[in-house]
Write a structure and sequence with these properties.
This protein is α/β, with parallel strands linked by helices. The protein is 40% helix and 10% strand. The structure holds iron/sulfur cluster (3 copies).
């Protein structure tokens, strides 16, 4: 069964059914943001009533976009981490919430893959920071790293921003102690279902075949190539895709596109070469 079908079925269930397994004792949940644009948190707020239903079904210990009460530091069932540990303070916070929580999930591309900030790693960090700060003495300028370099990550909500419906689908499973796996299906499946003409046919380089679907192919549907914000598919044929793309873009263009969402280091691992 495809993820889309499963989500459709799930939508037809009443709220009380979806969250019934943890109605008696509300799980403690925190949504923590490191350095980020906060777009993934806003994607959750965009769910409107559905997000409020979810919030009521749990004890929201920390979510700074909707409350400003002090986090008391209690134990957590689930922490969702958005953004990068760009500063030492971020790194300390990340390690602290990991210790407090049974489950830790990465919320979005920045946390999971380094995201847009990871471009700095490839562009000589010192020069990049000079664009932002006039005086750089005393400014932390750490290398950008995915959160799994610092802590164990139990699940990843991929995307930039995340797919909020996917969030609603997997959260109850995580809270029931399951370890869900997002189906390994490329963006192309959703793209073709929408009746889109494949961009590759017009020599427009699109990463879709090697990227994990689940975003409803929003970019190719808007005539934009997929740039890989949901990350590489585990079973994607990366080498074949690289060969195909070499016929329609230069190595430099490939390199630049792979840096947008922190895909470059993962591609280099799979290809076994520096790009
Ligand atoms: S993944 Fe995208 S939307 Fe989410 S925090 Fe990072 S830049 Fe913002
Ligand atoms: S446009 Fe991109 S995502 Fe759509 S079918 Fe072609 S390669 Fe796949
Ligand atoms: S089409 Fe590609 S870049 Fe666009 S949202 Fe989906 S995975 Fe991300």
């Amino acid at each position: 069964m495809t993820l889309k079908k499963v989500i459709k079925e799930e939508k037809t269930k009443k709220k009380s059914e979806t969250f019934k397994n943890f109605q008696n004792k509300k799980p403690k949940v925190a949504i923590v943001s490191l350095t980020s644009c906060e777009g993934c948190q806003f994607a959750l707020l965009d769910l409107g009533q559905k997000f409020l239903d979810f919030s009521e079904s749990v004890e929201m210990v920390d979510f700074r976009l909707i409350e400003d009460e002090e986090d008391t530091g209690e134990k957590l069932d689930l922490v969702l981490v958005e953004g990068n540990p760009v500063t030492k303070e971020n790194e300390t916070l990340l390690k602290k919430v990991r210790k407090r929580s049974k489950i830790l999930a990465a919320l979005g591309n920045c946390a999971a893959m380094g995201g847009v900030p990871e471009i700095k790693n490839y562009q000589e960090g010192r020069n990049t920071i000079k664009h932002v700060y006039k005086y750089i003495q005393g400014i932390n300028n750490l290398e950008i790293k995915e959160i799994d370099n610092f802590v164990k990550v139990d699940f990843v909500f991929p995307g930039c921003p995340i797919n909020a419906e996917e969030f609603l689908f997997y959260i109850p499973r995580l809270l029931r102690g399951e370890t869900p796996v997002i189906p390994d299906s490329p963006v192309c499946v959703e793209c073709r279902k929408k009746g889109n003409r494949c961009l590759l046919l017009d020599k427009i380089p699109c990463f879709g075949p090697m990227i994990l679907g689940g975003c409803d192919a929003v970019c190719p549907t808007a005539k934009m190539p997929c740039q890989g914000c949901r990350g590489l598919r585990p079973a994607g044929n990366i080498k074949a895709m690289r060969t195909t793309l070499q016929k329609m873009m230069t190595d430099e263009e490939f390199e630049n596109m792979s840096e947008i969402y922190g895909l470059r280091d993962d591609l280099e691992d799979k290809l076994g070469e520096t790009i």
